[in-house]
Structures are given as C-alpha cells and as structure tokens.
Amino acid sequence: MAQSTPTPPTAASATAPGGDPFAQLRTQAEHCLRQFRQGPPTPLAAYTLEQQLKAAFDEAARALLEQEFNRCEPPEKSQAEPKVRYQGQTYRINKKTRAEVATSFGPITLWSFLYLCQEDGEPGLHPLHVRLGLQAGSASAVLAERAARWAVDYSQREVRQWLQAEHGLRWSNDRLRRVLRAFRRTAVAFRAEAQQQRLLHWLGEAQRSRGRHRPVLAIGRDGVMVPIRGEGY
C-alpha cells in the first residue's frame, strides 16, 4: 500500500517564499480534497488524503513559524540594541547571520543578529536564539524534547531515522548529540524543582488517603546499579 501511494506535497509545492501561508494552505487542502472526491472512497485513497493533508498543514505551520521567528528582531542594525548582557558578559552587535533551525514541522531559515563578546576568545551570542529557547542554536524546544524522549529508548541511528521519516530532517550523529546535550543542560536546571513538586504531590495524596497508619516516606536503593566485584559487591 505504501509503495503505491502518491507522494505527499513537498515543502516547495505547499507554500512559496513570502506568500500567505493561510491562503496557500486553503488552496492546497482544496486540491487534495478534489483529488479524493474524484474517485470512490477506498483505504488507499483515504491513506493518501490523510498523508497529503498532514504534509500541507505541516508546511503551513512551518512557514508561519519561520515568518514569526524572523519578525522577533528589527530588520535594520540601527534599530537593534547595540549591546546586551548575558551571564555576566557584555556583547556588542555585529551583523545578521543565517541559521537553519529544525522544528517539529521541518527546517526553517532564521536570520538573527550575532553579538560578539567583548572578552577576547569567548564565543559570540545570538540573543534571539536564547529568547526562543533554541537548543544548540539549531533545534526548537519542542523538537529537542521529542528527540530526547526517543533517545532514551532508541539508538542514535534509530532516532535519526525517526527524525527523517517524521520531520524531514537529515541529522548527523554529531548534531543529534549537540542538541541532546543542550536539552539536558536546560532540563537539569528545572529538575530539582520538578522533583520537589512531585514529592509534595505524593505526600498530599498520602495524607488524603484512608487507613490505620500515618503516611511513611521510604527511600531505597532499588534501581541503583551495584557492580559485582570478585565474590561480593
């Protein structure tokens, strides 16, 4: 069935650069529906329609995301902040540079100002990347979270295959590892707070429960890997 299915509309055919994504989405969706209505409803026709509509909606969302992200900074250098402070360092504005950012709808092109660190030898900074929560400057927060969840249970090769099949992204192992490292650093900052909230939630449930005994919080070593050395642990 998959081999005989017509190819869904590509990113290039769904929206043209600079166009109105809403108008182009309507045109593309109506075209898909007309094709479906020309013949009898069959499993293959339904499968094809769903694939084509998903591709059309994903491309419209990708185009909207690209437009909106690129509006976050002023177009002219004279309109932007000449200097910014970030994590104790001062950066001065340089020029706009291009970056390909992977999102859950596919890759987008983002133009943003690069700021150079006043301290020699330190890397530059894209403030817009920080404000948008881009991971390693190349992946949206939503996509990075999805990749991180997959990386828990699957190999790098399988995660890359999934990224290509579901999001049209061709990543190297190096890029995948950079994004996962950046996501981990972001997530670790909120881990202690999340653990505390979950613990208080459990204690609250225990206090509201019925029984003859008061709630007890017990901590054990279950799940900790203890290597066996020689005859003992």
How does this model look, in words?
The protein has 233 residues and is α+β, with helices and mostly antiparallel strands. The chain has two domains: 11-70; 77-185, no CATH class. Helix content is 50%, strand content 13%. The protein contains seven helices and three strands; from the N terminus they run H-H-H-E-E-E-H-H-H-H. The protein has helices at residues 11-14, 21-37, 43-70, 127-132, 141-153, 156-167, 173-208; strands spanning 83-86, 89-103, 106-117. The protein has a three-stranded antiparallel beta sheet. Helix 5 (141-153) crosses helix 7 (173-208). The termini are far apart. The relative contact order is 0.08. Mean pLDDT is 88; it is low at 1-16.
Distance between the termini: 55 Å
Q: Return the average pLDDT rounded to an integer.
A: 88
Oligomer: single chain
Summed up, the domain count is 2
Helix content: 40-55%
Radius of gyration: 25 Å
Strand content is 5-15%
Task: Give me some keywords for this one.
233 residues; alpha+beta; 2 domains; three-stranded antiparallel β-sheet; 50% helix; extended
Quick take:
With 233 residues, this protein is α+β, with helices and mostly antiparallel strands.
Question: What secondary-structure arrangement, pairings included, does this model have?
Answer:
Layout: H1 11-14, H2 21-37, H3 43-70, E1 83-86, E2 89-103, E3 106-117, H4 127-132, H5 141-153, H6 156-167, H7 173-208
Antiparallel strand pairs: 1-2, 2-3
Helix pairs in contact: 2-3, 5-7
